[in-house]
Structures are given as structure tokens and as C-alpha cells.
Amino acid sequence: MTTRYTHLLKPLDLGFTKLKNRVVMGSMHTGLEDRFYNYPKLAAYFEERAKGGVGLMITGGISPNKQGWLLPVGGTMNQLGDVVPHRLVTQAVHRHGAKILLQILHAGRYGYQPFVVSASPIKSPISPFKPRQLSEKQIFSTIKDYVKTASLAKKAGYDGVEIMGSEGYLLNQFLSRHVNQRTDAWGGAIENRMRFAVEIVKAIREAIGEKFIICFRLSVIDLVHNGNTMDEVITVAKALEKAGVTLMNSGIGWHEARIPTIVTSVPRAAFVDYTAEVKKHISVPIIASNRINMPDVAEQILANGQADMVSMARPFLADPFWVSKTVTNRVDEINTCIACNQACLDHTFKNIRATCLVNPRAAYETELVYRKTKKIKRVAVVGGGVAGMSAAIVAAERGHQVTLFEAKAEVGGQFNLAKVVPGKEEFHETIRYFKVQLEKMAVDVRLNTKINREQLEREGFEDVIVATGVIPRQLNIQGSHRPEVLSYADVLNGAEVGQRVAIIGAGGIGFDVAEYLLKPPTQIQPQLIEEWKKEWGVDTHAHYDSEGGMQNIEIAPPIREIYLLQRKMTSVGAGLGKTTGWVHRAQLKKHKVQMLRGVEYQSVTNEGLWIKHAQQDQLLRVDTVVVCAGQESVNEIMPKEGENTIAHYHLIGGAKLAAELDAKRAIREGAEIAAKL
Ligand code: NAP
Ligand code: SF4
């Protein structure tokens, strides 16, 4: 079959072994790695993706010793008994011709446990535990632990290891002055700071020999104060090559960096220039990473000669068959990772199993199974938001005859609102994916159709899935019916908004609306990489001289005066996602949005919005009040308790519970109910 992704699908010969294409499934910690009884599930997770055609896979981080644990009793490989469960994984992957590396991750001071160690005894801002400084003797014993883990990985059938040297973990802590303040042979000049990483590579190569992949994940831009310059990064890369690495992977920014590196508002392939800069100075293949999620962007990076391979981690949670769909020119069938972090990294930080908002089967391959049905049923799905579409597609995939009723002229529900928010352009992809699947699964989609129960019963459906969603909650204060009071749906659908705005409600949607109103409507399209870097203070020079690749922030003055209000006394935005909330808060702060908590709403008059704040009555002189005060369920089509119906009714998504309206829950509930019909 001819393909336009020739660079992406070209094999890579590493001399002693061959990778079937240039696609790397990057390391993603699912949580299954940490418990051996979960390895059958982990093997199924990897097997599905190997079957999907990935060339090279990298496991979640496995520690070489207990000091290196990210979480208490995290996944470790340092004794023979650890090998057995890993064989399930390597055998499953090899059955489909893919290669797999075990990632050795020593968390250093990022460990959320009391045994933490680092280059210097400086606490990280993201762990409450202060690290002990590794003595020289302990450094040598840690090197031995890395070698032991690598040897055991070989025994377990891995094709190699990836040494995690970026994102602010232990080796990065040694590499950079940000943490390394030692005055011995392991600190000071870059030649000393890199000694630990280089010695580990040398020792593994010496112990295991040539026919074993050693990939090093190198921080190509630290994005922290006192981080390395590009000259220093290149010095490290060259030394690692000399020490014996087979592949170099790119790491972007430390986890504690206050510059986003993976959230959805980061433009696609934003950091590739730094990888390309390192590539000029080494001859081993280098892998690009971060915000690469679709074949066109991946192909372009390789065609431009900026990297030799591309790594994607979250995109393989979203779609295990990303590669096979690319090979067979079915790119429009790819379920795209929208970089929301809601079901993957936000789960990891809460120590719950990672999965995917757009693909609830991710890491649940053996539990959420879409079996072909033995009894074909006529199924109606009422509501074409993400909950309804998810249910319709899974039910149809299982062989049921499905009709989807949508009152509006298009499917997508709340995602149609989200997709117009700056930095949320990826939401278009999810709607595209769902639409393509509805067509592929031959779901009978009836748009502009507000169906009622009598019609459903008349048409003889056996099961009815009610996914009728929500409506925005209205404000109930004096003056709330005035024309200058708008709902978030009005605003995101294009209603005119004045220069001075008060937003009532500071949940996810309040923040979204604030971001939407920060820019003129004409500029609401994916941000250019250069402009984004200036806004966040990322050095725009590929060969940056600045420490950590940071420069002063350059930001256009705000086009509106915006207040974002909430009644609670908690800090504004405290309920947003762990890994994304800080980005939204920082974005609004930079654009001078005034965030007030503990607000009591009094009335809307022709002067503006009257509130009580800090015990005082205040007038916010605004032209528009936007209500983002949550939602109410719409579900009147559901039969009342005890009412007789022919069909079985099932309630899902926002229609079931508006208070916790959530796309992650909606899509999962749709899939789960359809899997049981
Ligand atoms: P939300 O998170 O529940 O926030 C609505 C806010 O409105 C509440 O926090 C509440 O804050 C306030 N409120 C509630 N009733 C009110 C009333 N009667 N009068 C005035 N204020 C009232 O809901 P949302 O912002 O609409 O978001 C809905 C869902 O979409 C969320 O659960 C979220 O998962 C999802 N979402 C997520 C993101 C994201 O970035 N991750 C973005 C958009 C949406 P106070 O009581 O403190 O005033
Ligand atoms: Fe991507 Fe969101 Fe799924 Fe994570 S949860 S893999 S960020 S779509």
C-alpha cells in the first residue's frame, strides 16, 4: 500500500537490530507497573499497541532501588524474582514484531517517599521530602544498581533500556546547577555534573555488551533557573554517545518548571528545534517528543531532518492502532490525544491507574471488552454529545443496530463549545474521530430530531440510552434577566461581549471563558510556536545561551478587563486538574484577569454587577456578566419510577449527574453501558 508517511514508516537499522518504523511509544506510567499481580493487564496493554504496529516501546519508569521510588513501594527491578512478570510483557510485545525497552527511572528528589536522595540536599517544590545528598560511595552503588537493573531487563527479554535523564529526575538533578551544588568530582563544571550519567551508560555497555539498546532521555531544554545552556546539553550528548548510547531521546522541561510542556495549549511540536540542534552534533539517532500527536506533524519533523524518530506516549493511550491506521491511510480514524491530562497524568498524580479520556479501554484492555453480541438489538441513543456518541459507537461495533437522535444540527455537544476556546483546538479532533466512527459503524444518525418517549416506543427500540446532557445553570439574582447577562454557551457560540466583563463561577468553564475573552475572535486559532514561546518566556533560539532556555516573557496588553469570581473561599482554580490547573491560573494572571473569591452576588443593574466582597458592597463596572455557574441535567425523557415501558432505559453522562459533568465520565459511561447491552 502506498503511503504519504514514508519517513515515519521507514525502518531504522541499528546494526545489531532493526526497528520496523520510526515511531516510539514513549514511557507512560500507568500504575500497573508497580504491582506484579497487575502484569497480565500490563502485558495486554502493551500487546494491543504492539499489534497496532509501533516500532519501539518504552515501559513506565522502573526504579533501580528503593531510594529511586517515585511512590512508596513503586515498581523496582533489582532481583531475579522481578524478572518473571516482565517476561509476560516482553513476550506479548515480541509476538507482534515490536521492540521494547525498560525505562530505568530513579526519581531522586522527586520521590514522594522518605528515602529520597539527590545531588545536593535541596528539597524540590513538588515533594514534601527533603533529599539526602548521595555520598561518592552511594553514587558508585547506585551505578551498580543501574547495571543490575539493565542486566535483569535483558534476562526478562527487553531489547534494551531507556535511562531517564530528563524531566528533573535524579540524573537531571546531577546534570544541572539548579540542584547540583557539589564541589567534589560529581559537581561544578558540566564535565563533572555529567559524570554520573556517563558512568552509568559506560558501566551498562561494558556489562551487557554491544547487542543491547541503550537509550538516554536527555533534557534538551531544562526550563528551570540555573538550568543547562545548549552548549552544555551538547557536551552531555556527545559524552553519552562516546560512552555507548544507541539512541538519544529528548526530554523537555523539569516537572517543577513553570512553563507548560505537554498541555493542550502548547502548540504541536513546539520543542522540536532543540532536538534538531542536538542532532547536528551527534551521530546516533535522536528521538523528538512532546505534543506530537498526529501523523502529519510526525512525518514533517522527520522529513525536515529535525529528528530520526518521534516519540508519543499519551497518543498511544488514546489510540493503540495509531500506526496501523497511518500505514493503511486511515488517519481520519485516529482517536487523537487531546493533551487534556485528565485521565492519564492527573490520575498518576492521584496514584490511581492511568487511562484515557477519549479511550476508556486504555490500561483496562482485559476489563472493558467490546465483545460481538450474540443477540442483535435495536438500540436508540438520545443525545449526540460525547457520552451518546461513545455509547452509539461501541454498541454498533458490537453488532447492535443503533440509531442516534440529536436535537441540534450537529453532534458534539459540549465539545462544540470547548473547541472554540483558544488552546483547545484539539477538541475538533475528537469530534472528527467520533463522526468518522459513527459513519464507519453505520449508526443511523438523525440530526435536528428532538425525539420523545412515545416515538421511541413506537419505533420499537429495545434499549434506549439517554445522553441528553445538560443546560447551563441560570443566575438567580435581581437583574439576572437583563440582556447584558449571558450564559457561557451564548458567549462561546459567538454572542457579543463588552470590554469589561465579570465571569460568575470559576470552574473549568469560567477559566475557559476568560481565556476565550482574552483574545479578539479573529485570533482564535492554534497559536504560532514563536508567539507561544514569547508568552511563556521560552528562549526562541534553538542554540540558546540562556540558562535552562528561558527568556523574559513578552505579552500583548489585555484587550478586556476581566473579573473571575467565585463564592468559595478556596483559591480560585483550586478545583482544576492537578497538571493543568496551574497553567490556566498562570495564563489568566499574566493577562491581568482579577480573580476574586468569597464573593456574594447581589444584583445586576445598568451600572454593572453589585457584589459583596471582603464584607463590603462593591460595584464592578462591567458591560457584560457571563454566567459559568455549572449545569443542570436534561433528562425528562427518562421514565418515572414504576412507569411501564417497552424498552429498557439507561441514563448516562451529564443527563445523569450534572454536578460532576465530566467528559471523562461521560465517554466511559457510554462505553460501559454499550459493552453490556
Ligand atoms: P464547575 O466546575 O462545577 O464550576 C461551576 C462553579 O459555579 C462552581 O465551582 C461554583 O463555584 C459556581 N456555582 C455553582 N452554582 C452557582 C450558583 N447557583 N450561583 C453562582 N455560582 C454558582 O462547572 P463548570 O465550570 O461548568 O465545568 C463543568 C465541568 O466541565 C467540570 O466538572 C470540568 O470537569 C469540565 N471542564 C474541565 C475543564 C478543564 O480545564 N479541565 C474545562 C472546562 C470544563 P462557587 O460555589 O464557589 O461560586
Ligand atoms: Fe491524551 Fe487526555 Fe487521553 Fe491523557 S487523557 S491520553 S491527555 S486524551
From TrEMBL:
Entry keywords, A to Z: Flavoprotein, FMN, Iron, Iron-sulfur, Metal-binding, Oxidoreductase
Transmembrane segments annotated in the record for this chain: none
EC numbers on record: 1.3.1.34
Domain NADH:flavin oxidoreductase/NADH oxidase N-terminal: start-end pairs: 8-332
Major enzyme class: oxidoreductase
SUPFAM superfamilies reported in the protein's UniProt record: FAD/NAD(P)-binding domain, FMN-linked oxidoreductases, Nucleotide-binding domain
GO term, biological process aspect, one: fatty acid beta-oxidation, unsaturated, even number, reductase/isomerase pathway
Cofactor(s) it depends on: [4Fe-4S] cluster; FMN
Domain called FAD/NAD(P)-binding: residue spans: 378-638
Any one GO molecular-function label of the UniProt entry: iron-sulfur cluster binding
Pfam families, per the entry: Oxidored_FMN, Pyr_redox_2
Domain of life the protein comes from: Bacteria
Gene3D superfamilies: Aldolase class I, FAD/NAD(P)-binding domain, NAD(P)-binding Rossmann-like Domain
Family from the record: In the N-terminal section; belongs to the NADH:flavin oxidoreductase/NADH oxidase family.
UniProt name for this protein: 2,4-dienoyl-CoA reductase
Native species: Acinetobacter equi
Origin organism lineage: Bacteria, Pseudomonadati, Pseudomonadota, Gammaproteobacteria, Moraxellales
Underlying gene: fadH
